[in-house]
Design a protein that fits this description.
The chain is of the alpha+beta class and 141 residues long. It contains 3 helices and 8 strands; from the N terminus they run H-E-E-E-E-E-E-E-E-H-H. The chain is elongated and about 65 Å long.
Length: 141
């Protein structure tokens, strides 16, 4: 119930994401938790959108470095990780050079450093799952 409320308030299908790489360092680090807001209508250089391409397994959190206005309601933009040397064109779907607004699941509005390490631990260090399950099992006895 709380998750659905947060989704409605932020207008994002995934209002909380965990940073899993160092591509945005020093702004964000691996393990940071990001709170998103998707009620932004105009995209500006410097904004940090979370982009999720249709066939991609994970979202991408990178900064807007260039905005193209095609009409009043149609913006496209180019992104780049703060810690990357080149823009993100090679990360976009084949044949694409810009991101559209509909591919954005939210813009970063708040972050909590290091709180996502639990999520990363569950995904990458499989024995942690069993350890936590065992601890819960013992506590329930």
């Amino acid at each position: 119930m709380m998750w659905k409320t947060l989704c409605l308030v932020t207008d994002s299908r995934m209002p909380i994401v965990c940073v899993i790489s160092e591509s945005m360092a020093p702004t964000f680090h691996r393990g940071d938790i990001l709170l998103l807001w998707n009620r932004t209508s105009t995209i500006e250089v410097g904004d940090i959108p979370v982009v999720w391409f249709e066939d991609s397994h994970l979202p991408m959190v990178h900064r807007v470095i260039k905005v193209h206005l095609f009409s009043k309601d149609k913006q496209r933009f180019l992104t780049k990780g703060d810690n990357n040397e080149a823009d993100d064109v090679t990360l976009y779907p084949k044949g694409r050079t810009l991101v559209s607004r509909r591919e954005v699941i939210g813009f970063v509005r708040l972050y909590v450093p290091w709180m996502g390490w639990l999520v990363i631990g569950f995904q990458e260090i499989h024995w942690i799952r069993y350890l936590i399950a065992a601890i819960i099992g013992v506590l329930c006895l």
